[in-house]
């Protein structure tokens, strides 16, 4: 995944004047994160509203990592008073001074010290009361985070949030000593800016007319030697491929190199074009020669998205992602059967003039193809969104989620995971067993036997790693260790940021962590 | 007032569940109960190097888990761009030393914990200073500083004295990615052993910068590397001074315009000349928690500790990898064996020095070279430098026989590297 952005997009939108001068205080404060998610991500964060249920150490650790980068609003829903144990393990309580006071109020006060651009509220109602009297209140948030909630109450909350796909996504976090897991419940999550590390195709194998003409117009043989050592490799390859295909009398006439000997021969022909041994541009061309026989097509992950039934009937209500996707699909069904060209050209050996000229050819063609996409749109879409969509077309993602806890009822999915991720599934089952046992027997102490019986109801055959997992859970049931809380708070905040900004790719499943052996895994 | 009187009933309710009984994977030597609690809370002394993005998180976690004698070193002062993640600092603290502000904050928030700050460089302290700690945790952004503390702790190990082995826990982050590792000096792979895992810094060839710029970065490098010294002579460039950045930006933008290159902005200029690495609170929280969790496990034996490397990538889902990084027998710090190096018999001393600076697993900035019997080239003191300078243009093969050894030392690092030279 490419993390750093080009800084122009990262800062100009935040404050259009600062591209040429020092940034204002806000841009300076957020500089290190704007280089990851740009002004568009920052604006999304600043418009978000996060609800956190249960003011535990894990909850405030998560919130800290969201208040610092500047979410718009958060509410802590918690009716409880600070206990001596809370005052000992939560950095956002004021030690013994907070004991006996409202946990939500104390935490909100101390969290707000971190960033005066953020709004925070304490709500001392219980979740049960909210679900009984005013569940719609919850749908006013962007994201809901719940840590170590009673499992029956959690089921009610999850079912309510799942009942309408416009409801906020739900983060379920469970932890017990050194073991922990979290899950994101969402129906669907579409990502345009996935920050894919795969570079878009330069279409060397399907050179567009402007590029082809330019390559053909150059006569390598009569060229000045300095000029010769500054031809960009893209141009060398386009020309070499054209020459290769033109040798129609040979068995490969008209086709790019196909077999291993042909590919070797092609590479040799590139090296043979050198007029001096130290021409690095020809070395680059040789190293990139595979681009001549790697056919530019629509990446399979993107092609899969084209199967979505929503693309066939675009209405004014269709989400913009699908309006864009429908146009993209139609675009790829015509010559050259590829995604629209990217206007970003990687650096390569060349002099300034040749590079800038090549860059201009790519930019002009990319603009032209973007124009075609715009004409294919069946409903209006803002221009900057089209730009972003086309620029990131090769990394589009559409994640489809499930109801919280669906895994434990899905014997087939569970059986599949058991084969490849036994330790991870064991930890997940141990945390599930503890939650169910505690909900049914609130005053009883969980034992290995009791939790094993509980887990067997979900998966009759227990597996490798079960003893290790259940033993740790029984050692410290629901213990909210400061280090585990901080670890989870970091992981969950990363994912909340990804969900809110719709940038980078969040998990699709259960993320399990074992801090005895220091590993994480996703089921 | 002794620290323990500050403890209220159930203060450590959560942590004590771990300290009062073993888990299924706990070492049988674990002394559950009062003994381990007493060691952690009254005897254990821990050093935190760095009070920045990782350091703030590390200090808070250590204080909450029950470490009460914490020391922290940092040479930096607080900048406004720290405030998006270094959560012990407020706008009013900008300009003040990180170590001091962080220590005060922790002591105010977590009663009974003593945090002793040192505002200065790790190199100011000697072995006696480092010897007083049970554990060292590093949250640094500098490779140089990590190499120094790593080599210092490895050199301190005295096989006769088990107390001289100080576990070193090191964390680092970049954007959504990070890593945490446990180093047992001389026992497990050390920081120097894994030097080749670092990303090579992007360096642009000088001829590209001078003659054939293509990217906005090339224009910025031209302004800072070539134009600044040409125009300002000996005046040092200060990348924290907005006026200096503005000057560089204007030069770079003018050059970009001449060459029809797009994309030079003020912010990009600052990013390139300061080599800014993206940083967010959440990634620092994960890595700092991982470091502190290992420190807690080592200090208490309540669970096995990391052997020895945890890396995390959070850009595409949550991907992590836990593995044992192997010790290198020819590691210049902890290996003991000479490193084989094959060079041409035509290679000059100067070229060999270039090679030592460039080579990914060595990266010594200012190497001095000698053989067991003679000095080849010394960077300092000036008299010795002048006396050995004529050797720079000589061929190595004239000074060192085949299979002969060269000892490489560096002024910035407390170690010496033995090279066994063969010629092609």
List the topology elements.
The complex is a heterodimer of chains A (523) and B (424).
Chain A: H1 7-11, H2 25-29, H3 31-46, E1 49-53, H4 57-67, E2 73-77, H5 84-89, H6 103-112, E3 119-123, H7 127-133, E4 143-147, H8 151-162, E5 169-176, E6 179-185, E7 188-191, H9 209-217, H10 225-228, H11 233-246, H12 260-272, H13 280-287, H14 300-305, H15 320-332, H16 352-376, H17 383-391, E8 397-400, H18 406-409, H19 411-420, H20 422-440, H21 448-458, H22 466-475, H23 482-501, E9 510-514, E10 519-522
Parallel strand pairs in A: 1-2, 1-4, 2-3, 4-5
Antiparallel strand pairs in A: 5-6, 6-9, 7-8, 9-10
Helix pairs in contact in A: 4-23, 9-11, 11-13, 12-13, 15-16, 19-20, 20-21, 20-22
Chain B: H1 13-20, H2 34-43, E1 45-49, H3 53-65, E2 69-74, H4 98-109, E3 114-119, H5 127-131, E4 135-139, H6 143-156, E5 168-174, E6 177-183, H7 206-210, H8 216-232, H9 242-258, H10 266-273, H11 281-300, E7 309-313, E8 319-323, E9 339-343, H12 349-358, E10 367-370, E11 375-377, H13 382-388, H14 396-399, E12 405-410, E13 416-423
Parallel strand pairs in B: 1-2, 1-4, 2-3, 4-5, 9-13
Antiparallel strand pairs in B: 5-6, 6-7, 7-8, 10-11, 10-12, 12-13
Helix pairs in contact in B: 3-11, 8-9, 8-10, 9-10
Describe what you observe in this structure.
The complex is a heterodimer of chains A (523) and B (424). Chain A has 523 residues and is an alpha/beta fold. Helix content of chain A is 47%, strand content 10%. Chain A contains 23 helices and ten strands. In chain A, the strands form two sheets. Chain A has an eight-stranded mixed β-sheet with strand order 3-2-1-4-5-6-9-10, with helices on both faces. In chain A, β4, α8 and β5 form a beta-alpha-beta unit. In chain A, α12 packs antiparallel against α13. The longest helix of chain A has 25 residues. Chain A is elongated, with a radius of gyration of 28 Å. The two termini of chain A are 21 Å apart. In chain A, 47% of the residues are buried. With 424 residues, chain B is α/β, with parallel strands linked by helices. Chain B contains 14 helices and 13 strands. Chain B is 35% helix and 17% strand. In chain B, the strands form two sheets. An eight-stranded mixed β-sheet of chain B has the order 3-2-1-4-5-6-7-8, sandwiched between helices. The chains are: A alpha/beta (523), B alpha/beta (424). At the A-B interface, α1, α2, α3, α4 and α5 of A face α1, α3, α9, α10 and α11 of B.
């Amino acid at each position: 995944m490419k993390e750093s952005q080009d800084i122009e997009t990262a800062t100009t939108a935040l404050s259009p004047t600062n591209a040429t001068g020092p940034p204002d205080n806000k841009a300076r404060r957020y500089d290190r994160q704007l280089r990851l998610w740009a002004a568009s991500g920052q604006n999304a964060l600043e418009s978000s509203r996060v609800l956190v249920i249960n003011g535990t150490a894990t909850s405030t650790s998560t919130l800290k990592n969201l208040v610092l980068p500047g979410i718009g609003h958060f509410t802590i829903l918690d009716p409880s008073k600070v206990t001596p144990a809370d005052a000992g393990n939560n950095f956002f309580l004021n030690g013994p001074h907070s004991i006996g006071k409202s946990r939500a109020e104390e935490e909100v006060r101390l969290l707000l010290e971190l960033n005066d651009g953020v709004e925070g509220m304490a709500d001392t109602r219980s979740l049960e009361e909210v679900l009984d009297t005013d569940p719609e209140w919850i749908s006013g948030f962007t994201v809901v985070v719940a840590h170590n909630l009673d499992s029956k109450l959690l089921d009610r909350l999850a079912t309510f949030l799942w009942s309408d796909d416009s409801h906020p996504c739900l983060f379920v976090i469970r932890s017990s000593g050194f073991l922990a897991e979290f899950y994101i419940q969402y129906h669907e999550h579409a990502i345009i800016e996935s920050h894919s590390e795969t570079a878009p195709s330069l279409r060397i194998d399907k050179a567009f007319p402007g590029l082809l003409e330019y390559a053909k117009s150059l006569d390598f043989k009569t060229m000045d030697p300095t000029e010769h050592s500054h031809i960009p490799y893209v141009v060398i390859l386009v020309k070499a491929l054209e020459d290769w295909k033109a040798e129609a009398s040979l068995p490969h006439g008209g086709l790019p190199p196909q077999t291993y000997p042909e590919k070797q021969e092609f590479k040799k022909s590139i090296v043979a074009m050198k007029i001096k041994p130290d021409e690095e541009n020809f070395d680059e061309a040789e190293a990139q020669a595979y681009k001549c026989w790697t056919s530019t097509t629509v990446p399979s992950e993107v092609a899969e998205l084209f199967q979505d039934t929503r693309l066939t009937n675009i209405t004014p209500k269709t989400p913009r992602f699908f309006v864009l996707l429908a146009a993209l699909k139609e675009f790829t069904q015509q010559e050259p059967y590829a995604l629209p060209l990217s206007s970003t050209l990687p650096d390569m050996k060349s002099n300034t003039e040749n590079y800038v000229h090549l860059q201009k050819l790519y930019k002009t063609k990319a603009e032209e193809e973007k124009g075609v996409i715009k004409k294919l749109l069946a409903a209006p879409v803002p221009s900057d969104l089209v730009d972003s969509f086309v620029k990131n077309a090769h990394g589009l993602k559409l994640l489809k989620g499930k109801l919280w806890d669906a895994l434990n009822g899905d014997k087939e999915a569970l059986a599949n995971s058991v084969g490849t991720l036994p330790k991870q599934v064991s930890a997940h089952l141990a945390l599930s067993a503890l939650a169910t046992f505690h909900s049914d027997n609130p005053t009883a102490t969980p034992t290995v036997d009791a939790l094993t019986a509980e887990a067997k109801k979900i998966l009759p055959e227990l597996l490798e790693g079960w003893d290790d997992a259940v033993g740790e859970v029984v050692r410290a049931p629901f213990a909210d260790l400061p280090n585990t809380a901080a670890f989870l708070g970091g992981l969950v905040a990363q994912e909340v940021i990804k969900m809110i900004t719709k940038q980078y790719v969040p998990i699709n499943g259960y993320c399990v962590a074992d801090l005895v052996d220091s590993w994480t895994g996703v089921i | 007032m002794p620290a323990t009187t500050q403890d209220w009933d159930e203060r450590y309710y959560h942590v004590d569940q771990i300290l009062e009984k073993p888990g299924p994977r706990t070492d049988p030597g674990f002394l559950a109960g009062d003994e381990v609690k007493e060691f952690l809370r009254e005897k254990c002394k821990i050093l935190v190097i760095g009070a920045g993005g990782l350091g703030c998180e590390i200090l808070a976690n250590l204080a909450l888990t029950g470490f009460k004698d914490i020391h922290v070193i940092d040479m930096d002062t607080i900048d406004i761009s720290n405030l998006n993640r270094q959560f012990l600092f407020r706008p009013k603290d900008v300009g003040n030393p990180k170590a001091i502000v962080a220590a005060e904050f922790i002591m105010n928030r977590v009663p009974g914990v003593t945090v002793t700050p040192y505002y200065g460089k790790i190199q100011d302290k000697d072995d006696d200073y480092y010897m007083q700690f049970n554990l060292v945790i590093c949250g640094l952004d500098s490779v140089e500083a990590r190499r120094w503390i790593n080599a210092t702790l490895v050199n301190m190990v005295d096989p006769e004295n088990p107390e001289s082995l100080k576990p070193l826990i090191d964390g680092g982050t970049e954007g959504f990615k990070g890593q945490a590792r446990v180093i047992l000096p001389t026992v497990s792979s050390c920081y120097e052993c894994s030097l080749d895992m670092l990303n090579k810094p992007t360096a642009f060839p000088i001829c590209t910068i001078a003659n054939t710029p293509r990217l906005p970065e090339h224009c910025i490098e031209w302004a800072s590397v070539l134009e600044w010294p040409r125009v300002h002579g000996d005046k040092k460039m200060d990348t924290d001074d907005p006026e200096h950045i503005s000057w560089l930006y204007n030069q770079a933008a003018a050059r970009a315009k001449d060459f029809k290159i797009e994309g030079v902005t003020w912010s990009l200029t600052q990013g390139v000349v300061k080599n800014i690495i993206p940083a967010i609170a959440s990634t620092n929280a994960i890595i700092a928690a991982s470091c502190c969790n290992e420190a807690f496990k080592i200090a208490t034996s309540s669970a096995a500790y990391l052997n020895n490397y945890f890396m995390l990538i959070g850009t595409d889902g949550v991907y992590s990898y836990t593995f044992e990084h192997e010790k290198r027998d020819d590691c210049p710090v902890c290996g003991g064996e000479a490193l084989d190096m094959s060079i041409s018999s035509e290679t000059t001393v100067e070229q060999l020095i270039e090679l030592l600076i460039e080579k990914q697993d060595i990266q010594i900035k200012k190497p001095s070279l000698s053989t067991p019997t003679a000095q080849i080239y010394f960077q300092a003191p000036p008299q010795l430098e002048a006396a050995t300078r004529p050797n720079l243009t000589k061929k190595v093969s004239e000074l060192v026989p085949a299979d002969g050894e060269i000892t490489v030392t560096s002024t910035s690092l407390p170690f010496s590297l033995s090279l066994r030279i063969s010629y092609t």
